[in-house]
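Before the break, one more example. Copy the sequence into your notebook; we will annotate it together after we see the structure.
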Amino acid sequence: MTFTVNIVHLLAIVCVAVVTYLARYLPLRYGDRLGRSDRIVEALRLCTIAVITSLVMLSVLPTFSSFNMRDIVPAVCGIGVGVVLARRMRNVGLVALIGLGVYILVLKLISPLV
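Here is what the structure looks like once it is written out:
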């Protein structure tokens, strides 16, 4: 069994890891110097959502490359509900769980049709 490494995938993993680490480390390290302005708090909140969104998109993009409606429709529905809820809620975990639930529900409903 041979093991090959795709350099693009490896770089994507390293980039996501670095951004995730920095999003948590920088506020702890430099939080006293930055203060608590509304702009900084909002930027940090959106940075966390952006990192989670990038992870979701990395897992969903291969679905779109297959052009299989059975896979694309549930992904679009789950992401759409997640985007709408993310604008209204501040709980990222709850948004992700509801989006996942919509994805599974639509997948189960559309499977017999396609």
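The chain is about 85% helix and 0% strand. Residues 66-114 form one domain. Try to locate both features in your own notes.
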